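Service request form, structural biology core

Requester: graduate student, group of Dr. S.
Request type: structure prediction, single chain
Budget code: on file
Notes: please return the result as structure tokens.

Sequence provided:
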Amino acid sequence: MTSKLTCSITSFVCAFSAALCVSLRPLRVTGISTQRTQRYAEDAEKSAPLPGFLYKAASASTFAVQVQNPDQPIEQTRKNIQVLKGLPESQLFLLMNFMAASIGVKCDYCHVRKGEKYFDGNWVWESDEKPQKLIGRRMIKMALEINRTNFGGETFVTCYTCHRGSTVIKSLPPLPPHEPIPPTAGLPTAEQILAKYFAAVGGQEAAAKFKTTVMKGTVEFENRLEGRNAQLEVTLKAPDKYLVTQTSPQGVSVIGVDGETVWVGNGNRSRMLSGYTSEWVRRTAVFYAPIKVIEQPTQMKVMGTEKIGDRETYVVSLVVNPDVTKRFFFDTQTGLLLRQLTTTRTMLAPLPEQVDFDDYRDVDGIKLPFMIRSSNTATYDTATRRFTEIKHNLTVDDKAFNLKTSPPQ
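Core staff response, request fulfilled:
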């Protein structure tokens, strides 16, 4: 029954979701956000596989580097690379933040920067001046060797395995000890969990009747940078149109999908995206669609249960490809999707990307989350979208999704 329902998705859910999932490459969810300061764009964006042109302050040259060469090995794009040779440039930004989060430090713990303010500094990434960086190299070599000789190259041991968010490694278990938790028996199948999820949101057929969805609210960022919070408007139109507009004191930023055309705009500038960046933009849209899990349940495996806050969830895993795994967390009581966690394998550690869904409300017979939060290992990429208004079947001109070739009026 569930398989038939999945295959019978029509109109918006089917066509739009198919367009969003044209690629199974590891793409970043965090780019739903849109405001960064000038120096941050110049320093940090060089390491992030994001469409830098999307941001108010990002320069055209930075954007060009990101779109054209996101997967070059870092020894070709960086100076003084010694132990991570072969790592794609697109993975460097989050991997460095993974290491920083694992030991509870910031970038300047190992790296040299010139300047008083953290985000206005002139970073000298290639410098070996700080001893912590040399120690870090040795630790990376150690982790790589442990995984190579003991786990067949799988990244079971990472910086976090021992450090757990501190520069002092953990060597003792907490006391008093706890009794081991026995394996959970009698779990429902993936087909049963997905069927309950579809019913909980209102059914796939009900979702398909909406030709347009317009969502309005705000986006808030958990960081100390000013000027990044913004007013947010998301517009979806069947079968394959998507528009995100964010308005802040710094201006208006737009992401658009119009069939095969993917573009970004900011102020007087707009341009088409292609390749890696285009695929990334398409992927972000699925989190706003009524049905957020479109994979076949026969491809999934029930892993057990896990708590998110005070709610128990069923954890369902999907191996997308040898490098990418998704985990879906469904509320055991309501059936609603509370979290999607995507991990991307790298040579040193798996990179987590998480999207949380909360504050579900009924809108025209469908349950939609009025809060969507995306996060990864970079603290300043955590973004919370809070919607105050969601409406269906509003009249939306197709021209709204067209690539803008002139400044906004």
